[in-house]
Write a structure and sequence with these properties.
Blueprint lengths: L2 H9 L14 H10 L2 E8 L2 H15 L6 E2 L4 H6 L2 H15 L7 E6 L1 H6 L3 H4 L7 E4 L8 H16 L7 E9 L5 H13 L3 E4 L19 E2 L4 H5 L4 E7 L4 H10 L4 E5 L5 H15 L5 H21 L3 E6 L1 H13 L3 E7 L14 E3 L2 H8 L4 E4 L3 H6 L6 E4 L17 H23 L1
Parallel strand pairs: 1-2, 1-3, 3-4, 5-6, 5-8, 8-9, 10-11, 10-13, 11-12, 13-14
Antiparallel strand pairs: 1-7
Length: about 450
């Protein structure tokens, strides 16, 4: 098995140049996280081009107006005027133009330019009356997944009040960056069906969920407010979904050591969801509702129905580590052979993936595995590369970006229900490609 060797090589940056990259920057992950906070103003401390690219990227992926602002620094103004001045002027200009809709939180995240200069973004908060959260997210480190996780950690560390008490059945969900708004909503609904008071951080379930609302695109419209974040110290449980989110859970446990932490690498497939439902049953000492039981039965039936197609097929998966591990384990649970998992960044969770090849790389690295694959799960950048292959290989779009399909925000792969849909989508894609082959 080559997994360990290739992961070790990837940590040493064995490749000096990425060709057809699948990774995206930390500031982009931070910007998305701040959009998941109610009435938050996501402010990128960067040049106008950096913020414009992020805004266009998310606008095309979600087909929604995106709340995104920047401090418009350049290499010259960063040195002459200093970072503090640019941040304060940007906030003043934005609030003057939007007097009827003032932000309840300013979420400042840095980029490579301002991190290289070394701006003291922490001290800027002393001059701002609006609640302020800063997070250091240089482009030259990590990726979208770590930028999202660092923002969740910063929100808790900087704003949650310490506590010594916990409120029974109050749960905080910490979802990883690859989970769509509808997936966060579904998981919250399941927890609430057990009688739990449930919050998610960040929470895109009301922000980029495809719901047309007044004032859309001016501020983040997430389902968790700054007041909610301040009061997270009395949660009974914090539940992390994705290895990247453990740093945020650790920050919350420092606020209250009595909080219990439960971790799940993913919520795809029967085993993971059985464990998740068992946790909720333990918290509330009650049984799941009839609909949850029915979806579990549907998933089992889907596993049987899709077994013959998936079990005779080979797969390649690319994307963020927390997304890859769930898809890989679900496909393998019905007999699929995963030839390669190509991740955007190194994560300890990659070492738990039992695939023939697991490594950090780009689509250039992935191409040599495409020839044998029946189905590739990747973002839309893989489409052109697959068209160049002699063998006809199916493509299933997942991760960022997906410019080809509408309704990304309503695509659910989580829990019993989403896992059922996922297996049928995989099987139907395989049915088409195998029919064309014969």
């Amino acid at each position: 098995m080559q997994t360990q060797t290739k992961i070790e090589l990837s940590k040493k940056e064995h490749k000096p140049l990425q060709v057809n990259p699948i990774k995206h920057s930390q500031p982009m992950g931070a910007a998305l996280a701040f959009m998941g906070i109610k009435n938050c103003l996501p402010l990128m401390h960067a040049s106008q081009g950096c913020a414009s690219y992020t805004k266009v990227f998310y606008t095309r992926h979600f087909n929604e107006p995106i709340a995104m602002y920047n401090t418009s620094v350049s290499d010259i103004t960063a040195v002459l005027d200093g970072g503090d001045y640019s941040i304060l002027m940007a906030i003043e200009n934005i609030t003057q133009k939007n007097k009827t809709l003032l932000p309840e939180l300013i979420g400042l995240h840095t980029t490579g330019l301002t991190e290289t200069k070394g701006d003291d973004v922490r001290s800027v908060g002393m001059h701002i009356e609006i609640p302020y959260c800063y997070v250091n997210t240089p482009d030259y480190e990590g990726g979208m997944e770590s930028g999202w996780a660092l923002t969740a950690k910063a929100l808790i560390a900087q704003h949650t009040k310490p506590s010594a008490q916990t409120k029974a059945s109050k749960i905080l969900l910490l979802p990883h960056v690859s989970m769509q708004p509808i997936e966060v909503e579904k998981i919250k609904e399941l927890c609430e069906s057990f009688g739990c008071t449930t919050l998610a951080l960040p929470d895109l379930s009301t922000s980029l969920d495809g719901y047309l609302s007044e004032g859309q695109g001016k501020l983040g419209t997430g389902a968790i407010s700054i007041e909610d974040i301040v009061g997270l110290g009395d949660c009974e449980y914090v539940i992390t979904i994705g290895a990247s989110m453990n740093i945020a859970a650790k920050a919350l446990l420092e606020k209250n050591a009595a909080i219990k932490h439960a971790h799940f690498n993913h919520l795809m497939g029967q085993e993971a969801n059985d464990n998740f439902v068992a946790l909720l049953m333990q918290i509330r000492q009650t049984q799941p509702n009839a609909l949850t039981k029915r979806w579990r039965g549907r998933l089992q039936d889907a596993m049987l129905d899709s077994h013959f197609l998936i079990g005779s097929s080979h797969f390649v998966i690319t994307g963020e580590p927390d997304m890859c591990v769930g898809m890989c384990e679900l496909i393998q649970s019905v007999g699929g052979s995963v030839d390669a998992v190509i991740a955007t960044n190194y994560s300890t969770v990659l070492e738990s993936i039992n695939a023939a090849n697991v490594f950090v790389g780009d689509l250039e690295d992935a191409v040599k595995y495409f020839a044998k694959a029946d189905l590739v799960i990747s973002n839309f950048h893989a489409e052109q590369l697959l068209h160049m292959q002699e063998k006809h290989t199916a493509l299933m779009l997942r991760g960022f970006p997906n410019y080809e399909e509408l309704g990304n925000q309503l695509k659910n792969d989580q829990l019993y229900e989403g896992s059922t849909y996922f297996l049928f989508e995989v099987a139907n894609a395989l049915r088409v490609v195998k029919h064309e082959k014969h």
